[in-house]
Amino acid sequence: MKAIVIHAAKDLRIEERAREAIGPGQVEIAIEAGGICGSDLHYYNHGGFGAIRLREPMILGHEIAGTVRELGAGVTGLSVGDRVAVSPSRPCNHCHYCLKGQQNQCLNMRFYGSAMPMPHIQGAFRQSLVAESWQCHKIGEDISIHEAAFAEPFAVTLHAVNRAGSLLGKRVLVTGCGPIGALAIVAARAHGAREIIATDVIDGVLDIARTIGADRTINVAANPQELAAFSANKGYFDVMFEASGNERAVRAGLDVLAPRSVLVQLGLGGDISLPQNVIVAKEIEIRGTFRFHEEFGLAVDLINRKRVDLKPLLTGVFGIDDAVAAFEAAGDRKKSMKVQIAF
Q1: CA proximity to 139, closest of 40, 33, 35
Q2: Gap between the Cα atoms of 193 and 191, Å rounded
Q3: Would you say residue 325 lies in a domain?
Q4: Which of 125, 143, 186, 340, by CA, is between 20 and 30 Å from 279?
Q5: CA angle at residue 211 from 38 to 326, to 5 degrees?
Q6: Do 157 and 184 meet the contact criterion of CB atoms below 8 Å apart?
Q7: CATH code of 132's domain
């Protein structure tokens, strides 16, 4: 089979790899669609992110969907020919955190396409993947394989909503409208947000943000005063989803958050400086959010039931042999929202 393998920054190769043997309780899946994630781009552009560096060649990818090709012994609930979205999250279910129901914090997590451990966890950008049957979630007959491949990043934002608490009737600010910020808008709307305002520095992504559910968008590079106006009377927003990882976005958000509001940090960045006096005086809660677990099934269900429309976020599909072009396109925020690879 063909696989997309990263060797170092800007050294992406299409390689032939042996197909894996299938075991009891497992299924073999013909991968058909895979979305390029921000972490994939970090490996491609920089050879890693933060302290995490590539130390050996690694297959990339974790936003995937495909068709069941073969069933291992004892598999029930799935049939050859079923189309499935595949959760890349494989917790051990034995460690301290798993037993507390915090599988996303698993001490022995095997998440596709991760250079955190050594040897690295090989990813899912390959033509054939052997997975545990419980990772596979059936998709509806009228759902495209490309929509199904959105389940993983959508689950990330559904977990962020869980971290925020109830959004019913809340005024929500989303800063950074890349794929995760855009999906946070969709997730917030599905969970009853009263009003959603989104910010970014690129008009094109703000146009998409309005298409998928934002009530209003603000280009904070061109019109920062439009956001600053919400700081009157100690702030306006009840919840903020920060998806840019940018210090200026965080600080600007703290100014417009109302007392006793919640800031959920989705975006990854370096160390930043925060105004403690603002956080203390307005009693703002800052909450991290990391990956997901049970939210993957919810993501697939919402997509299957057409409760959400993620199709406007797909801006390009490339064949596997054009993977380098796909990664270059995915890294151009002015032209691309979500780029997928067809296997």
Answers
A1: 33
A2: 6
A3: yes
A4: 186
A5: 35
A6: yes
A7: 3.90.180.10
Tens-place pLDDT, residues 45-74: 999 988 889 999 999 999 999 999 999 999
Note the pTM of the prediction, 2 decimals.
0.96
Q: Which residues, in sequence order, are CB contacts of 308 under 8 Å at separation 6+?
A: 154, 186, 190, 302
3-state secondary structure of 85: strand
Q: Which tokens belong to 133?
A: 């049957």
- CA distances 45 to 61, 121, 324, 328, Å, are 15, 19, 11, 9
Q: What is the CATH number of the domain that holds 247?
A: 3.40.50.720
Say whether 103 sits in a helix, a strand or coil: helix
Cα 45 to the center of its chain, rounded Å: 18
One-letter amino acid identity for 341?
I
The Cα 206–Cα 221 span in angstroms is 12
- Please spell the DSSP secondary structure of 162-176, one letter per residue: HHH---TT-EEEEE-
Q: What span, in angstroms and rounded, lies between the C-alpha atoms of 134 and 321? A: 30
CB 323, CB 15: distance < 8 Å: no
Task: Give me the percent of the chain exceeding a pLDDT of 90.
Answer: 96
Instruction: Indicate whether 205 belongs to any domain.
Output: yes
pLDDT score of 121: 96
Share of the chain above pLDDT 70, in %: 100
| 42 domain-assigned | yes
List CB contacts of 116: < 8 A, sequence separation 6 or more.
52
Contact assessment for residue 305 and residue 316, using Cβ atoms and an 8 Å cutoff: no
- The residue written with tokens 């976020």 in the block is 313
At 129, is the secondary structure helix, strand, or coil? Answer: strand
